[in-house]
Amino acid sequence: MSDLAPHEGRDPVVRVENLEKGFRRRDGSTVPAIDGVSFDVGPGDFLVLLGPSGCGKTTLLRSIAGLETPDTGAISFDGRPQFAGDRQINVAPEKRGVSMVFQSYALWPHMTAFSNVAYPLESRRSGKRNKTEIATRVRETLALVGIGELEQQYVAQMSGGQQQRVALARALVSNDSLVLFDEPLSNVDAKVREQLRIELLALQRDLGFAAIFVTHDQDEAMQLGTRIAVLQEGRLAQLASPLEVYTRPANRYVAQFVGTMNESLGTVTAIKGETAEVDTGIGTLTGRLNGDSIAVGDRVAAMWRPESGTMTNTDPVAANRLRGTLKASMFVGAYTEQVVDVAGQDLRVQVPGPNVLDTGADVWVEVPEVDLLVMPVEDT
Ligand SMILES: Nc1ncnc2c1ncn2[C@@H]1O[C@H](COP(=O)(O)OP(=O)(O)OP(=O)(O)O)[C@@H](O)[C@H]1O
């Protein structure tokens, strides 16, 4: 899959073309960590690379930073080649003019916040700035990420959240047009993580840099990304807006990985226009075709999201009525997550407010046709 598009006459901030990178295993086999990936990142884009462990996110990000050398393909920044396999071009990381924030912070613990943040300016562009200019810029940046008062504190004496703010300041201090993030929020607790996400988005919008952000956390991807690239064994399974990835997943792998899906496997018994009827172990389900070339007799997955279903104790009239027993009810605050046993399969339904039915009650689950996706099963 490719996502190269013209950007109104100007070069994209990042262009990745047909990138490939394999790692040799001890047994002599090769793992294709990046397998023919192409995409553009425009000015101000926030691209999230999402996927499970081992799908190639970090290798792709490190290749863009210049910390990993791809086998073939090309990477350019603003039209300037950084890597070109066929032309032996491979610009050194420190010459690429990008900043990176790591999961491990990668700070010097026995140096102050100020010294850590000043480092890129002193090492990379010392010729252009004098000491006073550097100090002003460092202080501005520390204030920007909310730790102006900690400038003389040693990093080793800071909380995880404060250290990650120092790492963020160090990435922003050079004012690069591209900042790369490798799971930067996974070592801080849930509340701090949430706060840092909000601040990061505001900073990115205000400063206007393009971001590429690696995560395996689909909530984080949905919250941060202007676009999400879902990776599957080194390939791009889908690259689209969070809304599109959620409502029109490109395949079953994406549907299963992003958000929660109820899934019943079955066989197509009829197709009418964009709608298919599927014979499943829990009854006949009707939904939207989500995939090319699905035919009668094909093995498919009927999938729908917990918030698309409704649960009642009276027989509904519409299609996709499923009779079951309320197995569990979990009040989560904004909604109640219901688990309904339908012919031995646990289905999840989210209903607003608290539950009014007793566990063990006979219930009906109803799913609108438009919210049920019929997907091929052979492509995962
Ligand atoms: N230095 C290496 N030597 C050999 N194999 C490697 C090396 N680095 C990565 N791999 C392999 O390449 C594949 C992609 O790894 P990568 O770290 O990019 O995945 P990831 O999606 O970032 O995973 P995680 O979320 O766990 O960091 C995996 O199969 C991994 O085992």
Automatic annotation (TrEMBL):
EC number of the protein: 7.6.2.9
Stretches assigned to the ABC transporter domain: 14-258
GO terms for cellular component: ATP-binding cassette (ABC) transporter complex
Keyword set, alphabetical order: ATP-binding, Nucleotide-binding, Transport
Domain of life: Bacteria
Entry-linked Pfam families: ABC_tran, TOBE_2
InterPro entries: AAA+_ATPase (IPR003593), ABC_SmlMolc_Importer (IPR050093), ABC_transporter-like_ATP-bd (IPR003439), ABC_transporter-like_CS (IPR017871), Mo/tungstate-bd_C_term_dom (IPR008995), P-loop_NTPase (IPR027417), Transp-assoc_OB_typ2 (IPR013611)
Keyword Cytoplasm: no
PROSITE patterns (alphabetical): ABC_TRANSPORTER_1, ABC_TRANSPORTER_2
GO molecular function: ABC-type quaternary ammonium compound transporting activity; ATP binding; ATP hydrolysis activity
Annotated protein name in UniProt: ABC-type quaternary amine transporter
Organism: Halostreptopolyspora alba
